[in-house]
Amino acid sequence: MAELFVTVGLRARAGKEEALRQDLIAVARTSQHEEGALRYELYEDSSQPGLFIFIEHWASEAAQSKHHNDGPHIRHFHEHGAANVERTEFFHRLDRLA
């Protein structure tokens, strides 16, 4: 199976930056220990506070799909934390070239 690389950028709603930051940290800390997660990191853009960026490296598309579709922490975020997201700035599935 081919490895999968994903980057996602989420923009916080005005005034909800800290709440979203804490929610995303909780998601990242749990996701980092999931089976198939080779890299799962959360960043905040230093020049654009409130823009949070995930960099993900999965052992396979199946592992990422299980995380995204079956993870209870992801479900919890969608039910309780996603309201703090203004918009998805980008979502990229990447193929490594070198």
UniProtKB/TrEMBL annotation:
Coiled coil: none annotated. Residues 4-94 form the ABM domain. It comes from the Bacteria. One of its GO terms (molecular function) is monooxygenase activity. InterPro entries: ABM_dom, AI-2_Isomerase_LsrG, Dimeric_a/b-barrel. The keyword Oxidoreductase applies. Keywords: Monooxygenase, Oxidoreductase. Gene3D superfamilies: 3.30.70.100. Pfam families: ABM. PANTHER family: ABM DOMAIN-CONTAINING PROTEIN, QUINOL MONOOXYGENASE YGIN-RELATED. This is Antibiotic biosynthesis monooxygenase. It comes from Brevundimonas pondensis.
